[in-house]
Amino acid sequence: MEFSDFDNRGYRTVDVRTGYGEWVASYERTVEDVMDIGLLERLREPSWAAVRRAADLGCGTGRTGAWLRGRGVPAVDGVDLTPEMLELARRRGDHDRLVTADVTDTGLPESAYDLVISSLVDEHLPDLHPLYREAARLAAPGAAFVLVTFHPHFIMTAGMPTHYTRGSGEPVAIDTHVHLISDHVAAGLAAGWRLVELHEGVIDDAWLAVKPKWERFRNHPISAAYVWRKDS
Ligand SMILES: C[S@@+](CC[C@H](N)C(=O)[O-])C[C@H]1O[C@@H](n2cnc3c(N)ncnc32)[C@H](O)[C@@H]1O
């Protein structure tokens, strides 16, 4: 589904590498933990402390990897398309291996991970199937795939793409795609995953504490976390 059908901002749009290559300077100050970390904290599984090796797809500056390490995951490999984002992850030091690659073709070893995770990445992919297939390739039997995503309802209602503000003050959009919940379910099932949990994050008091001007969106869903399992 094309984001342009819902766009009510009309920002100039750039590709992922260009966008995150610029946003990197302020990314950590602008991304809100309540969007993704808040949802990860609600999951009943996987048992984080039991994970031996995780693949962090679209690891960016390493926020998710740092959270995983804090939960006791001993080894995390990260993949991202944007070298500038990876450089911050490298300095942060929570990943064992960091690879510049596409999340749909990572080059990481097959069946090597008991957790594959991808947070706030898939809205940049035109098609979800290659991501779910690559996650399935990386996953060991019994592994979990945790995917945190922008909720399609929010993108449609707010008409707001993923965007950042340039030093000049100009807001710039990064290529954004709208994926329905049924698109995720179809892609996950087609890749052989079994859905075991799905949580939706809404704009609540915790959100409004960090974004008071979003009162008009109170109770609207903004993000979602899927937990998929590969059969043993
Ligand atoms: C919103 S950031 C999320 C980063 C990190 N997961 C987090 O939660 O902070 C999106 C990241 O996905 C990366 N990305 C987007 N499309 C990608 C693709 N096709 N392959 C690899 N990385 C991609 C971007 O470079 C960026 O670092």
From TrEMBL:
GO biological process, one term: methylation
UniProt keyword list: Methyltransferase, Transferase
InterPro entries: Methyltransf_11, SAM-dependent_MTases_sf
Gene Ontology MF term list: methyltransferase activity
Gene3D superfamilies cross-referenced by the UniProt entry: Vaccinia Virus protein VP39
Pfam families to which the protein is assigned, alphabetical: Methyltransf_11
Membrane-spanning residues: none
Methyltransferase type domain: residues covered: 56-146
Keyword Nucleotide-binding listed: no
Highest taxon listed in the record's lineage: Bacteria
Protein name stated in the entry: Class I SAM-dependent DNA methyltransferase
The species this protein was found in: Saccharopolyspora rosea
Origin organism lineage: Bacteria, Bacillati, Actinomycetota, Actinomycetes, Pseudonocardiales
